[in-house]
Amino acid sequence: DALAPQLEAARAEVLADAELWAAGAAVPEQKEPLDAGFHLLPDRLLAELKEKGAASELARLKATADRLAGDCKSVVVLGIGGSYMGARALLESCCHPYYNEVPADARGNRPRIYFEGNNVDNDAATGLIELLKSRDEPWGVVVISKSGGTLETAAATRIFLRELAASAGDKLSQRFVPVTGTSGKLFDLATALGAPEMYDVPDGVGGRFSVLSAVGLLPAAILGLDIEKLLAGAKAMNDHFATAPVKDNVVLKYVGVSHLLEETEDCVTRILSTWGKRLEAAGLWYDQLLAESLGKDERGALPLTVVNTRDLHSRGQQHQEGVRDKLITNVIVEKQDSKPLAIGKLDLDGKAYNQDKLDELAAKTLPEVLTAAIAGTNQAYAEDNRPTTDIVMPELDEHTIGQFLQMMMLATVVEGRLIGINPYGQPGVEAYKKNMNAILRK
Ligand code: PA5
Question: Do you know which CDD domains this protein is assigned to (predicted)?
Answer without folding.
Answer: SIS_PGI_1 (cd05015), SIS_PGI_2 (cd05016)
